[in-house]
Amino acid sequence: MKLLLLTTVLLASTGNALAICAGSDTDPAAAFAACRQIADSGDADAQRMLGNLYQAGNGVAQSNTDALVWYRKAADQGNAAAMHNIGVMYDSGNGVPRDHIVAAEWYRQAIDRNFAPAMYNLGLLYEYGMSLKQDYAMAMQLYRQAAELGEPLAQFAIALLYDKGLGVEADLVQAYMWFDITGAGHENAIFNRDSVATDMQPDQIARARQLAAEWRAARPQLFPPAGDPPRS
Question: Does residue 134 contact residue 127 with C-beta atoms inside 8 Å?
Fold first, then answer.
């Protein structure tokens, strides 16, 4: 009984420290101390968050080198967000030599764990042919995968492909639909939707709105009622 009680206390203590580590209102120095405490114990989420703190310079001197060290520790344990973050560092050349091929490899590892932001970023590499053969079809496939998981940047990217007719036949109904689905998820989505509408007939706009409403209705987990937190 004493052992069980001790284990419970330790778990509760770890949970409190992780909450401090992740809290946006936490004092930066306290957040770093909490993250470091749990990261040293081997917790992958804390290791990834510690990497974030090093990269941003929150509560500790900014260091891309240390950020990469902790991201790798988390990635070695299968943390998809850490894999994605390493990909972003290579994609942007942030603290490491810029290398889109290496970035793509890290994105693919995160994608294998169903991580939507990595799908979107790899899609960008294919769309723009950055060290990969330009492939709009592959970009669209990746964007759609991410869109199904609720990634607004991917939803916006799909709308742009339909609007520009890149890799697909230009389709204002589909462009309007996807801008509408993106909504507040991208600062330009509503503006672009309304701009596209100026070249559409009323029946086309009505059809696009219907398609967007049907898409949302078929995926209630992505659109919880107002005031409710997103479902995991």
Answer: yes
Q: What is the pTM of this model?
A: 0.87
Q: Which of 73, 27, 65 is nearest to 48 (CA)?
A: 73
Q: What is the DSSP string of 83-146?
A: HHHHHHHHHHTSSS---HHHHHHHHHHHHTTT-HHHHHHHHHHHHHTSSS---HHHHHHHHHHH
pLDDT in tens, 68-115: 999 999 999 999 999 999 999 999 999 999 999 999 999 999 999 999
Q: For residue 187, is it within any domain?
A: yes
Integer CA distances (angstroms), 56 to 72, 147, 189, in order: 17, 28, 28
Domain span at 190? 152-221
The half-sphere exposure of 191 on its side-chain side, counting CA atoms within 13 A, is: 3
What's the Rg (C-alpha) of the chain? 21
The total domain count for the chain is 1
- CA-wise closest residue to 155 among 206, 80, 226, 223: 223
Closest CA to 23 of 57, 55, 54, 58: 58
Backbone angles phi and psi of 3, in degrees to 5: -65, -40
Is residue 168, in this structure, part of any structural domain at all?
yes
Of the candidates 73, 96, 167, 178, the one whose C-alpha atom is nearest the C-alpha of residue 127 is: 167
